[in-house]
Amino acid sequence: MNLIIVYGLVFASVLLFVDIAVRALMVSQRGTREVNERLKRISQGSDQDTVYGSLLKDRGFGQDRGPALQWLWRLYQQSGLHIPPAKRAMYLLVIFMASWVLSLFFVRGTTLQLISTVFLTGALTVMILMRLRSRRINIFVNQIPVAVDVLTRSLHAGHPLNAAISLVSREMPDPIGSEFGILSDQLAFGAEIDDGMMSMVERVGAEELNLLAVSMSVQRGTGGNLAEVLENLSQMVRGRTMMRAKIRAISAEGRITAVVMGIFPFLLYLMVKTMVPTYFDSVWATGYGTYIVVGVLVWMGIGALILRNLVKFDF
Length: 315
Description:
Layout: H1 2-33, H2 37-43, H3 48-58, H4 67-78, H5 85-106, H6 110-156, H7 161-171, H8 176-188, H9 193-204, H10 207-222, H11 226-250, H12 252-275, H13 281-285, H14 289-311
């Protein structure tokens, strides 16, 4: 019983430490989210060429990696995190420690504990990055109609498209401000608008931004009133945003149910293990306990994917 209490205290302390670290990270990101990173670096005395190169380097532009590493690096860049390598290693170590404590409860055997710890560390890291990327994309999508309105008004005032894009980079906060700043620098250095927009789509990963890129590309090739095209696009993006909010409200009950169903088995195991420490010893003694846990986790993962598809709507 004393050993279970020690394990529980270690788990609670690690969980508290992870929560404090994540909250500190979110506070630091919240403090800089509304700052246009490009303008900030320029105001610190850096010239335009240096700022342009550093922003592309931060977003991993032009890096030559394998498919798996390229996907993981792109996920990290699209999440909007710009953490120094030392802090990045510290956060990975915290996630590794939390995964190790969890493996002590559910897995027997040093080798299997190490394998499960490495797997949980990778899975939790990817989940956190995907969550942060989703938040950043949502913020970006909510900013697109305002940015398009700024573009439209600038075009109505008689400014060229390059000047309108530069105005968005100066007037809009991050993340859309810095991304349009990179686009403005690319155009100033002689890049085509099509290539610049597609590069932005790759850096951000928002579908609505792809619509903006296609609209500009089609208008550039066929001609027409770009301001009118952008006005219609702004209305469409606002409509999609409202529809997405309604769908999230309708599916909220299903998402909460999925979370409860995913957490409840682990909480039940910990409660039984705490109250009756020897309750599962007979299962582990048979030698099949680890296989049972792996099978249950696989089936729970399949169920989580099914529930996720039931409450997620792509349109």
